[in-house]
Amino acid sequence: MPPARILTLWITPELHRPSPIIGGMPHVLLIEDDTSVRDGMELVLRRHGHEVEAVATGEAGLKLLSRPRGGGIDITVVDLMLPGIDGFEVCRRIRGRGQLPIIMLTSRGDDLDVVSGLEAGADDYVVKPITGRVLEARIRAALRRAGPVTRTDSDDFAGLVIDRAGLTVTKHGTAVPLPPTELRLLLELSASPGRVFSREQLLALVWEHDFLGDSRLVDAAVGRLRAKLEDVPATPRYIQTVRGFGYRFGPL
Amino acid sequence: MRTTRSSTAKSRARGTAQSAPKSAPNSAPTTAAGTAARARARLPRLDGLRGRLIITVVVVALISAVTATALAYRESRDAVLKRAQNAAVDDFRNRVERLAGELDVPTDPRTMARFATDVSSGVRGSLVVAQYRDFTAASDPSADRTRITPELRAAVRTHTRVSLQRVEHGGKPWLVLGAPVGLDAPARRGGSAQPSGVEIFAVVSLAEEERDAADLVRTVQGGLVPVVLLAAVLALLAARTVLRPVRRLARATRRLAAGELSIRVEEKGRDELAELAHTFNETAGALEHTVGELREQEALARRFVADVSHELRTPLAAMTMVSSVLEEDADQLTPDTAHAARTVSTETAKLARLVDDLIEISRFDARAVTLHVHEVDVAEAVRATLAARGWTDRVEADLPPGIRARLDRRRLDVIVANLVGNALRHGTPPVRVTVRAADDRLTVSVADHGPGLAPEVARHVFDRFYKADSARTRSEGSGLGMAIALENARLHGGTIDLAPPAPGVGAVFTLRIPLRTEAPS
Q1: How far apart are CA B271 and CA A147, in angstroms?
Q2: Which of B324, B375, B410 is opposite residue A133, by nearest beta carbon?
Q3: Would you call B372 an interface residue with chain A, using a CB distance cutoff of 8 Å?
Q4: Which of A31, B50, B168, B197 is buried deepest, with most CB atoms within 10 A?
Q5: Which residues of B are less than 8 Å from A80 in CB distance?
Q6: Distance of residue B442 Cα from the nearest chain A Cα, in angstroms
């Protein structure tokens, strides 16, 4: 874990930037060790209007992100299996520094890897082999989560203040930095307190996945959100589980 | 007491007759009740090795006992009778000799009668008949004299010694003695005495001797039952020493047949049974070795497939990634190049699907799959599966609302997609999907309206890479879809069955899984 002081350097600009891609090209950091796959992805993403920084190792990717303003990167696509620092560690270090959206590249059948990657802070994952179109759609969806929202009011839920205009969350006056996916999940749930959302609904609302999305994405994001918001994550007050159905915000 | 026991035996026999066909298809019952039933079933069987052994020993014991009894009876009877006979002859001769002196010839009937009575009193009071010329006198005039046969009379007439004959009369054995009465002690002087013309006969009862012999037989007969019982017990004991190793061997064979290839039996002693046990152990060892080798080879082959699939994945990832570029730009290419580009693109997608399925099935083989169970609205899930593949308009769906199940939604999707895809590819429309829930089980049936599956196809429909139509070398699917569907169903603790062919109904595949699958923790 890097020292806390460096963290603040990172969090502040990101948190106060509602939409990092307005007016510019989405800037993608691609960390993939296989040359052909990396080149193929770079080619496809460029054709879809992204700026791409493609590197072969986690070290190179992290070095690029440690440049001023994070190297101008809007989103990271990282392969889990990397020589040197692996994808999980890259996720953890990126999450330790800020709220940059992360999409993992996994191989089929590595179920445990998916779970570990989500726990490390990844927002979404795609399974190789994947078509350029699908990858592009996932990147767009992840970026949209960091984009503007329709409601701009503020709510105070027993000390938990959700500022929809500023896209900030504070708890008892302390800022709680949240990555776009977790923030969007909290916004969707808190918009209708007491309403039960199924995992499928949340996948569609937050991740823009079709009906076959992986519900573990929701579970992992809820887990990460609880760890940051709840006093006792094991007995959550804000984001409650409705067994057999899904999740709901409150009742408090 | 005896009736109770025999009725128990009967009821046991009935119990066996009922349980025998039932236990046959069942794999070895392991409960205590089952063991007890088997032990009971063994007892009344007489066609088994034990029964045959017991019967043989008992029959041999019976035959020897009866033969011994018969021989003993004959010998003892002869001895008893001979002794009685000798005694009677001695008594008769002594009596006649002693009384002959008082008899004058010619004689008168009165003297004759007295003579007969006197002789009779010396010969156990038997009937004594004296005859002189044409008149006879008897100790008991009313007695039946037919027991004195003409042969004996003839013998007495021609011999000077005592003649005797054993006759059966009125169901009783009699000894009839006869002798000519000499004028003076004839027997002792070499038979030179003058016959007096008086012939004397005595009829002695042998009933008592006969009874003694019969008593003896009865005694021996009484001893026969314990002897046979003892023989049966001994046979039982002998049968056990032989049968115990046989039964042990039979048990080991059953377990070997059930797949327990490491089973061995104890080789005790040097008899034929020990030899058999040795052969069994050798066979089991060879079998275990061969099967082990085969399994190893199979595992190697599967690992090879898994490794190859994984190796294919990285180049495929690159190809799949850029194939969309080829497709997008195909319009700007010359027709030939565009065709080539599109072919490369579609075949890359197929190859990717094949490798996906290969990796998936390898993971099932390696048991590296896990269930992620959630509460799922089944109708919604099936509808989503159909919609995701653009099948909504091609499939009739009977999806009652409100069926909720705990299962792995993505695996259900794989199963339904493979069943429906198979029906759409190989069956005849309309394809119909029916969801039902009953008795804690969820059933999803996929039916087409074609001619159904031929039996040889039905047998292999879940086999990997099985192609029903050999002419069609390649189809849309990977050839693994049905196998993967079945593995997924089994992972849920369920099955996929193909309904037996029926007229007017096409192929009907039915997925049956528990409504609530418990996730392995």
Answers
A1: 89
A2: B324
A3: yes
A4: A31
A5: none
A6: 17
**What is this model's ipTM?**
0.75
Domain termination site, one of B365, B390, B405: B365
pLDDT bin (cut points 50, 70, 90) of residue B31 is very low
**CA–CA separation, A110 and A127 (whole Å):** 9
pLDDT tens for each residue of B326-376: 888 888 889 999 999 989 998 898 888 888 888 888 888 877 788 888 888
| Cβ proximity of A87 and A104 under 8 Å | yes
Q: Does A92 touch chain B (CB under 8 A)?
A: no
What is the identity of the amino acid at A199? R
- Interchain contact A241–B (C-beta under 8 A): no
Q: What is the pTM of this model?
A: 0.59
Distance from CA of B321 to the nearest CA of A (A): 5
Mean pLDDT of chain B: 79
Q: Which of A41, A44, A129 sits opposite B313 (nearest CB)?
A: A129
Domains of chain A: 4-145 (3.40.50.2300), 154-249 (1.10.10.10)
* Distance of alpha carbon B425 from alpha carbon B397, whole angstroms: 17
State how many domains chain B has. Answer: 4
Residue of A nearest to B354 (CA): A129
Interface contact B372-A215, CB threshold 8 A: yes
Pair type for strands B127-132 and B195-205: antiparallel
User: Cα angle vertex B190, ends B186, B193, to 5°?
Assistant: 35
Give Dmax (Cα) for chain B. Answer: 169
CA atoms A120, A125, A127, A132: torsion sign: negative
B379 and B497 together in one domain = yes
- Angle, CA of B191, B194 and B199, to the nearest 5°: 90
B315 and chain A in contact, CB less than 8 A: yes
B485 is written with which tokens? 């569907």
Contact A131 B321 (CB under 8 A): yes
Q: Domain check: are B188 and B99 in the same one?
A: yes
Instruction: Answer whether the bond into residue B106 is a cis peptide, omega within 30°.
Output: yes
* One-letter amino acid of B425: R
Angle at which helix B49-100 crosses helix B109-122, to 10 degrees, equals 140
Of the candidates A36, A37, A131, which has its C-beta nearest B323's C-beta?
A131
Q: What is the pLDDT of residue A77?
A: 93
CA B184 from chain center: how many Å? 85
B287 belongs to a structural domain: no
Minimal Cα distance from B357: which residue of A?
A108
Residues B388 and B501 in one domain: yes
A216 touches B: beta carbon within 8 Å:
yes
